[in-house]
Amino acid sequence: MSDVFVINEKAYRAKKILSNVASYAFLTLVAVIILVPFYWMLLTSLKSQLLMEEIPPLLWLKPSQWQLSNYSSLFALVQSGPRAGSPLFPFFTYLRNTVVVSIITTAGTTITTILAAYAFARLNFKGRDVVFAILLGTMMVPGEIFILTNFLTIAKLGLYTWDQTYGQVLIAMTVPFMTSVFYTFYLRQTFKQIPNELYYAAKVDGTSDFGYLLRVMIPVASPTIVTIIILNSMGAWSAYVWPAMVTMKDEYRLVSNGLRGAFTDTGSGRTDFGQQMAAATLVTVPLLILFFTFRKQIMRGVSRSGIKG
Amino acid sequence: METKNNWKAWLYLAPMLLLMSVFTFYPLINAFIISFYKGFRPLQNSIEGFTLLGNYLLILRNPLFWNAMKNTFVIAFISVPVSIFLSLAIAVGLKSIPKLNKFFQTIFFLPYVTNSIAVGMAFAVMFHKNYGLINAILERLGFAGRIDWIGGTSSWWTQMVALLIFTVWESLAFKILVFTSGMQNIDKQYYDAAKIDSASKWTVFRRITVPLLSPIILYISITSMIGALKAYNSVIGLFGIKLGNPSNSMITIVAFVYKYRAELASPGYYSYAAASAIILFIITVVFSLIQGVVSKKRVHY
Amino acid sequence: MDIKMVNLTKIFTSKNRKEVQAVSHVDLTIPSGKLIGLLGPSGCGKSTTLYLIAGLLKQNEGQIFFGDDEVSEMPPEKRGIGLVFQNYALYPHFTVRENILFPLQNLHVPKEEAKTRTYDMAKLVGLEEMLDRKPKELSGGQQQRVAIARALVKKPRVLLLDEPLSNLDARLRLQTREEIKRIQRETGITTVFVTHDQEEAMSISDEIVVMKDGVIQQMGQPQDVYDHPDNLFVAKFLGSPQINVFDSTIEAGKVLIDGMAIGATELPDQKVIIGIRPEGLQVDKTKTSPFKFEIDLVETIGRDTTLIIEVTSEESTLLDKKTFKAIVDAENRIKPKDVIHFVVKPEKMHIFGLDGNRL
């Protein structure tokens, strides 16, 4: 009996090890596929024009072959074409614009979201469920539908003119996006998990509704609010359509449309992949830094949003 | 608290409702109205009359729109099942390993936090005929002739393959994360019971994991289907604003909307944009309704 | 400060628009400085009554007075109450100190005074060493005491406790019970204590109020209520093991169960319901009593022996149950299958009419 057991045990272990090896191999392969585009981006950005044009392409570079000229040339002034006289890719201008837009939008969204989520989670009022259902319904509507009229609204408000100012651009880029039904829904769920008794206790302790929101609800729900702030701030980095639509001047662009614009508008000549990838790297790195700083909050927030719907 | 603080509640809601009335509710209604205009000049704000279905019929007769429909549906119906299957497999793989889960999870999540345009441009370089990584690898593997994937001599097929690969790559991150956390919520005792019943790994996956995960799988299928129907940034990232070779060969419905929207000076074009956006809206509603029906019938524990 | 409720009524409307009177025309005066146990099965309206006193719910009818001061329309924060919740409702992001301090901040008590009062209160509940901890770093009993300190720190006129012990384990429950009693004695504050546990209420309260279906059944000192229940419900609700209840008749001044005379009464002839406390059944060593049964089970715990008698007869006179119990002295050394003659202690026998009210 014990012999049989030992043999089975060995076979079982071998099988276990084998399947572990297979799992690790599969996951490593996927990891490589996920990482390769980033690697290729960085590698290409470091290649000189000469190395770039080598066929078949070089798959790695020795440190001595690294070239930063692609990066510095991004800031050189364009000689001809519609963008003559401005830098090819004024990354730091775009970065500043993106950060400013991101901060304003996020501040606005956080405030409107907290107030609305509080009303939906804690206050009783006529028509609450109807309003909430209507708001949820708007999540199904493709954003393209809103954009058509919103552009006209912005134009009518005189925010889209030839002599558009930075302030006008900021209003146009931020105000339409200062609400989020999704985050309201998400925060309402968190607010609802805070026990009723806490609200009653605060009432007995002499707090007003607003005081309760500020002193109890917000601190207790702060992990969710931080997640919302982080996820929302990242939105400005990938915003492409709207900023492209409402900015008249090149210097007002955000990183995404600045990036695409810089390498589509260049009138003549070959596409310089080195420069393109240098710019793409510059756009990607800050996001990755943000991600690794707040990895836990971001991944938790995104996974919850997926499960709860 | 049961006192009815009606006006107070509306005060809390006011900022959101105010902004949404201007930038969500009004535009939604207005999009329908615009789609019924004849000869609408948005900058002058003038129209030549109304038409009930005129703009819709014009779109439906436009071959470019059908090209956009074809591309959009190909993207949705291929990339969504493929990415769901792959991410399920990856999530199962992640569950089966004893160590390094967090490490792999973090790597797999990277595409979610990057920018479609920037990574799309990197994919464009990877698919380059002469300087790209893909052809270099194919050559190492013994496929001699270099394929022009997305360049001047490329075909619709190669461009679509490149776009699908990029789309799947991009969309894995979210699904892997959601499936992984979904599986963590499955009670471990089911797996222990299956072990005692000496079920094979494949059986466990098919008979336990997938059924217990089915609500999440369905939810993800529908939301990513709707997301895929709105494909745009990835196309712009990979092909630039020319939208492929020849121009517009990779156009999607959303790209079609924006193409006509951009023609502010041409009378009536804005209405085409509105009408096509509404067609997209109707398609998404249909998909959501299908979700409602299917989830009632098929999703079970 | 006594609490007076006049004709207090609270109606809830459920989702299908059915109206339920959770508290029905309650007239009740809670004497000043006493600890009152509000007792009843779940859904009897005891917590609703407490929330009405607190002002967290608003009555449909009736009035509430604290002393001569009518508080019926006052919001909770104006009433001067301290409230302890079943799950304590401590603010999880505040330390113990901040939790106790919070009501004082809302009342804009000067900083120095607030500090002293917080410390004194923490000392009263024995937590002065724990002031800088967060609630989750405390045991259940300690959290409970923080909740009491928070309720008392603003010197409320009345202290309300909503099932405060139900989240504690058995041993801690006994300890905390004593603790609450001590704190109440030391502060002399009028206290209302809601519980569904009759033993808890009896042991802690100066007086108990028994409720059922939103109606007050009886109020009085715990032992009085136990010894003289006004109705069958109160008789059954108090006491463990439960009172034994029999169908019975009165004939010519004799109380008969199944034809066996168990006691005497001056009541006229009629059908009645008889309740006999288990400790009211005593072994008749002379074996002359007609009230005799074969014993089915015997449980001896220390001094007391519980006899369990199964009634097999088809026409059982026993109400609700198949068995009844007697608690006798362990010295009797009774074994299963023994046939025992019982005599009934007259003061442990209660006679109710068929409507359940005491005769």
Structure description:
The complex is a heterotrimer of chains A (309), B (301) and C (359). Chain A has helices spanning 2-46, 49-52, 69-73, 91-122, 128-138, 143-156, 166-174, 181-193, 196-204, 209-220, 222-238, 241-246, 255-262, 273-293, 295-308. With 309 residues, chain A is mainly alpha-helical. Chain A folds into two domains: 2-67, no CATH class; 91-308, Orthogonal Bundle (MetI-like fold), CATH 1.10.3720. Mean pLDDT of chain A is 87; it is low at 265-269. Chain B is built from twelve helices and two strands, in the order H-E-E-H-H-H-H-H-H-H-H-H-H-H. Chain B is an all-alpha fold and 301 residues long. The model of chain B has no long low-confidence stretch (mean pLDDT 89). Chain B has a two-stranded antiparallel ribbon with strand order 1-2. Chain B is globular and about 75 Å long. Chain C is α+β, with helices and mostly antiparallel strands. In chain C, strands 6-7-8-3-9-10 form a six-stranded mixed beta sheet, with helices on both faces. In chain C, strands 13-12-11-14-21 form a five-stranded antiparallel beta sheet. In chain C, strands 2-1-4-5 form a four-stranded antiparallel beta sheet, with helices on one face. In chain C, strand 17 (297-301) and strand 18 (304-310) form a beta hairpin. The radius of gyration of chain C is 24 Å and the shape is elongated. The chains are: A mainly alpha (309), B mainly alpha (301), C alpha+beta (359). The interface between B and C is small, with 3 and 3 residues.
In short:
Chain B is mainly α. Helices cover 70% and strands 1% of the residues of chain B.
